Amino acid sequence: MNIKKKGFAAAALLLASMAGGQAEATVFAYVSETVPPNSDVLTSVPVNNSVEVELTTSGVAGSVITVPNSPDFAAGDYNQALYVKYYVRFIDGPASGLWASITANSETTLTIDNADVAALASAGGGDTIRVYAHHTLESVFPKAQNGISTISTPGQQTQVLFYSDSDSQNKAPGSNGTATFLSPVAGWGPNASRPILPEQGIIIRNRSLTESITFIKPGVAPDHEVSILVKPGVARDTAIGTGYPVNVLLPDTNLGSIIQNQILFQTIAGQNNAPGNGGTFTYINPIANWTIGNTKEIAANTAFIFRQPVTDAGGKRTITKPY
To answer: Which of 167, 168, 249, 319 is deepest in the core (most CB within 10 A)?
Structure first.
């Protein structure tokens, strides 16, 4: 029996068309992952929701993006509630590929939660941005799929574990919280609207001793660049995926440098797997690149640990678009 399914289903490339007047070509895809009993899987969600609105910025100051007055949204439409609900993705310009969550908006401004991303944007405007809704626990693991992507048997309920964003290495699964699927009625309870952020690595924990679960997520295949903003001067682990619903060669992550950055994978056998027990690849130099990892394919919805030493100068790293 195949207990592990990863990646992009070619048959799910259903349609390329213009959606809702937006510039994004809507190509539908889905990813899937089967989690064996009593096991953890480090995964991500590399498909988008539909575009809420596409705009051209007219300026950026601090963490506030100014846009032309738009009939597509009103003041407060994207305001943060208990959790952030929407985010901005930069489509072009110096911040292209990066994203940041929206915490508040007026009719002509979007306030984002990442000043480092905002600092890379064109201060005088002219950048294309899109607003998307975040995925949430409920949207990725809906109550209607209980028995498929979740199990609600008392004591064996499916869990999703989040990693801390702290500047440290070897962070424990759940260091930024653990959500438990409570029941077919309550679902994820107060965590239902907790976002699963773009490119974020999460742990799906199957606590059943006998039953597998299969996570399936349809969405829109990104037609934009995906970039990662690497924090400078810290020894840090970050759990991330490539952001694309197709396999990506490890060198095409562009996460290497001459300072021994590493990409660590985890197996799916058992729980609390150590970073690297599924393989560790080290960037050597621009000639050798990732040595034996040069032919390593990162499966579509796999996440991995990106480990950087304190000597990493940081900056934007853009993953080579695989299609």
So the answer is: 319
